[in-house]
Amino acid sequence: MISPEIKKRLFSLFPEDSATDSPEDLLCYGFDATGIESKPEMVLFPTNAEQISEVLRLANEQGFPVTARGAGSGFVGASVPVNHGVVISMTRMNSILSIDPENLTADVEPGVVTADLQKAVEERGFFYPPDPASLKISTIGGNVAMGAGGPRAVKYGVTRDYVLGMEVVLPTGEIVNIGAKTVKSVVGFDLTRLMIGSEGTLGVFTRLRLKLLPKPETVRTTLALFNTVDDSARTVSAIIRSGIIPRTLEFLDRSAINAVTDYMDAGLPTNAEAILLIETDGSEDIAEKELARIRDVCADHKVIETRVAENEEEREKLWTVRRSVSPSLLRIRPNKINEDVTVPRSKIPELMKRLSELSERSGVPIVNFGHAGDGNIHVNIMTDKRDEEEYTRAKGARDELFAICLELEGTISGEHGIGLKKAPYLESEIGPVGVALNRRIKAAFDPNNILNPGKVANCHEV
After folding, report:
1. DSSP string, 88-125
2. What ranges make up the beta strands (E) of 212-300?
3. Residue 379 in contact with residue 159, Cβ under 8 Å?
4. Could you tell me the sign of the dihedral formed by the alpha carbons of 425, 428, 432, 433, in that order?
5. Which residues of the chain have pLDDT under 50?
6. Which of 93, 115, 182, 340 has the most neighbouring CB atoms within 10 Å?
7. Tell me, what's the pLDDT at 460?
8. Under a CB-based contact definition with an 8 Å cutoff, are residues 419 and 393 in contact?
9. Cα–Cα distance measured from residue 42 to residue 63, given in angstroms and rounded to the nearest whole number
10. CATH architecture observed for domain 218-326
């Protein structure tokens, strides 16, 4: 518990409207998209690195935990303050500090919303590719902390590929600048990469330097429908094998198609067992030629039909199908266990076969969609928590899912992180030596374990 005296000291560090301990505010900052709840004792809204430094120095002196938070849109509980203490909300540090057209970089504060950054740089003719599904609400700092991905990762990579450097407040309160403005830099250990995906356990980002690209001239989009999941999965491998790396290569299985069809009038045929949503980009000539070659590959793999968007309105309609999957799932069951496993692209056909068998064996619906181009499939095990017997079977199916992915040389988390939800499975992938190494790194940065305790290196099941 934070004593009244310590609260008074914390209040003194912030303007009146930048610190709160009202019950209503505490409730709002004690959960994320998982629904796991654990209220903090105080919420602070810093506007500079020095304020955060003072908070962390005091935390080390007094021994209370501190959890940094972006928009709270994560799916694994990484920003949930399980040890209570103080939440530092980064939402007021939301300025785009500079866009450098000569060096193709942008300096931003961590509270900048991803979509706002994308819009700002595209207006200048540049491109920031990482596009998590939550981009309209998620913050850049949260994206970096979790190593976020998105549909365009198949061609352009994930958030970690676009972070050149950062200003960070370490758990002990020191402010340090790491990385560089240059593309090349091999001075010392790569602390920037270490920070990316660390889930707010090694430091609090206060300034981020991001790499930009020239904005592609055009984007071409097609929807391909298949008779079998196997045909669609083999098409994914064939497209990559042909030498084309699409901008996006998204997948929906039959259960996802059914959910969308029940949710909205998508105009999808009733006989399709799988859908691929594929995009190419670049110059108009290249994007068109690559799209034509992709359609040829689809035809070689028994495609039922391909639909090509001829304008932005038609493109948006095709994307509406993909974006409607998540909200449509609650028509199947009121709850879902949502996992983002990843396997090598060549193993997607085997993964889909095994998931079908798992659904039948466990007796719970499993809906699959996601980023097939990089092997990242969102597996949704549908259940009703009020039915204890079914929920037990659903959790057992999750255990089997992770075992299948590791057997197929994959990973239990492609872009959502570990947080609280996947903490019990961490050792199954990285082994006891890997866990011990993570703990030693955490101790080196945070000897008093005050920054987001209970995650990654010292995680536990909630």
Report:
1. EE-TT---EEEEETTTTEEEE-TT-BHHHHHHHHHTTT
2. 213-214, 218-226, 248-253, 274-282
3. no
4. negative
5. 460-462
6. 93
7. 44
8. no
9. 15
10. 2-Layer Sandwich (3.30)
Decide: helix, strand or coil at residue 327.
helix
CA distance linking residue 452 with residue 335, whole number of Å: 27
Give pTM, 2 decimals.
0.95
Rg of the chain (C-alpha set): 23
The angle formed by the CA atoms of residues 77, 1 and 70, to the nearest 5 degrees, is: 30
Output the pLDDT for position 457.
Answer: 65
104, burial (CB in 10 Å: exposed 0-12, middle 13-18, buried 19+): middle
Task: Look up tokens 């011990």; give the residue.
Answer: 436
Do residues 140 and 110 touch, judged by C-beta distance below 8 A? yes
Select from 400, 353, 404 the least CA-distant residue to 381.
Answer: 400
Rounded distance between C-alpha atoms, residue 48 and residue 324, angstroms: 38
Joined together, the tokens standing for residue 148 give 């976020």
Classify domain 4-91 at the CATH class level.
Answer: alpha beta
What are the structural domain ranges in the chain?
4-91, 96-214, 218-326
CA dihedral sign, ordered 292, 323, 422, 392: negative
Per-residue model confidence (pLDDT) at position 459: 52
| Token representation of residue 372 | 């097939």
Token pair 């001075």: residue: 187
CB contact at 8 A, 126 and 215: yes
Domain 96-214 architecture? 2-Layer Sandwich (3.30)
